[in-house]
Write a structure and sequence with these properties.
Mean pLDDT: 86
Largest sheet: 4 strands, antiparallel
Distance between the termini: 72 Å
CATH superfamily of the largest domain: DNA methylase specificity domains
Structural class: alpha+beta
Shape: globular
Strand content: 5-15%
Number of domains: 2
Number of strands: 8
Number of helices: 6
Radius of gyration: 21 Å
Order of helices and strands: HEEEEHEEEEHHHH
Low-confidence stretches: none
CATH architecture of the largest domain: Alpha-Beta Complex
CATH class of the largest domain: Alpha Beta
Length: 188
């Protein structure tokens, strides 16, 4: 099924930041990973009736439309509201009830999907995709239970990766301390 059959695809907006703003203006650098926004993010747009139609909902998905590092997808968390997406994003809204937003993010972020999108990307200086390219992307959609299982397995895998890195860091520290102690003992 194509993305435009399961969600509406719109573009983010281009606006001027204002330190006195009350609306979060999400850019690519505000995400540390697909699920996490920078906790120090501050609102930077002035609220206006014109801006309200662009407010993001927690079921929306942001897809990076420009860049050399791929076209990664992000879920919108409710922690930073109201928020709008900057023009570097395409926004998937009104996602069909048969599709979990987190599953859509997982699928778009797959290496094979990223390679496909890079193949469709336009521009050599800064590769980009547009609404049509993203809307025409084919997504395999299993039943909702399978989607939940995939999303949960993906979360477990990401947590495992974090734990493995932490364990490696602790082992490195332990080994350094052990060797440093051994060196000091040999010098005495």
């Amino acid at each position: 099924m194509k993305v435009n059959q399961i969600a509406s695809v719109s573009s983010g907006i281009n606006n001027r930041r204002n330190p006195q703003g009350s609306v979060y203006y999400l850019g690519a650098s505000d995400f540390s990973d697909a699920r996490t926004l920078n906790p120090l993010l501050k609102p930077s747009l002035m609220a206006s009736p014109k801006l309200e139609k662009h407010y993001l909902n927690t079921s929306d998905v942001l897809v990076l439309a420009k860049g050399h590092h791929g076209f990664t997808a992000h879920t919108v968390a409710g922690d930073f509201q109201p928020a709008v997406a900057s023009s570097v994003f395409l926004v998937l809204r009104k996602i069909a009830t048969t599709v979990l937003p987190e599953y859509l993010v997982w699928y778009i972020n797959l290496k094979s999907t990223q390679e496909e999108l890079k193949g469709y990307g336009r521009g050599s200086a800064l590769p980009a995709i547009n609404r049509t390219i993203l809307g025409d992307l084919e997504i395999n959609i299993p039943d909702i239970e399978m989607q939940k299982n995939i999303v949960n397995l993906d979360k477990l895998k990401k947590n495992e990766s974090i734990l493995v890195k932490q364990l490696d860091s602790l082992k490195t520290t332990q080994l350094e301390l052990l060797l440093k102690t051994k060196i000091q003992n040999n010098e005495q």
